[in-house]
Amino acid sequence: MKLEGFYCSRLLASANRSVYLEDKPGGELQKIGRIPNQATGREAISFRLKTTKYWSSALQHFTGPIHSINVWHLSGQELLANAERWLFYSPDRGKSWNHVLTLPENSAVRGVLPTGVTEHDETLFVGEYLTSYDDTPRLLCSTDRGDSWRVARTFPESRHIHAVQSDPYSEKLWIATGDTDEESQLGYVESGEYHRVGTGSQRWRTVSFQFLPDSIVWGMDCPYAEENQILQLQRTALQGEPTELHAVRNPIYYAASLSTDEEKILCFSTGCSPVPDSTAPDDAKTGTDSQEATVWMAGSADDFSTWIKLASFQRQNPLFDRLGFEKYSTNAYVFLKAIDSRGLFFNPYNTVHHSGEILSRSVDALRNELKEARQGRV
Which InterPro entries match (predicted)? Predict the structure, then answer.
């Protein structure tokens, strides 16, 4: 099971091509629909191997679990989903799906990243995640729920788009690209104009933003760095340099946040890969020696100075790892989602323990862990 998000405070999840929704907050996950197979020819065979229950279960013994489905709740009963490079729109909570977009053939297995699709100012935005330099990644947009699409902007200087996220504290649409120093950049669209905030180093390479009233926070996604920083950039100095809040060993992929009566809590998760990053400089170390996916948390009451490792999961070694075919094996991740009323939900993927399970920490549990950690520092 893969954690996708929330639908009216209820968990939204997927498994293979099936979509699941809690029958009530904290209730049972029930199947509400199935995403179609739009692929043809050889692509259809590959697609079935990765997204049909029987075949995907067999395949993951060789590669580890492969996730190629993402689902997003828009508004009302509307859902958007991708199955590899095909995007679908559902107006009726997953009962029916309309094919609305086909991405380029050199899109990654997952099609787009979970953070690469958003709704902003009643417009859908999709950031292309390409695997080669044959095409230029595009930011696509639709104002009619996918009936038609246009190119909002291209990023010829980048390999692919990592994140497209709406800023709840402004009218900005934030965008992150990767992967080399020159390809990595953060910027935002406001009033139809794109403004580049930073580029030129791995500090500007990220997969997920978190937004605070006074700042933007993100984690570095650099597999070959000796440490990956969690960085904060003040809104009053968007053309300045970010400051480091914390540093962890492995690249940071996903993030979530929630608010309590006392403070804002930020959570980040790291992942790991069985092979070196293909974009790493020749003399750079790889981060693959640490095969651990972790979850980290801090709160605003002490200006995010106390960081807690909430959970740690060892990446599993599928058969291809043991046979020397690591490049065909999958990464380990921890998907994160949070909601003020229920707390933090985390979903380890391709790990020795709890792989595919949706775990959680209540708001009270998070609050107590922060309190104890801060008292221990005094």
Answer: Sialidase_sf, WD40/YVTN_repeat-like_dom_sf
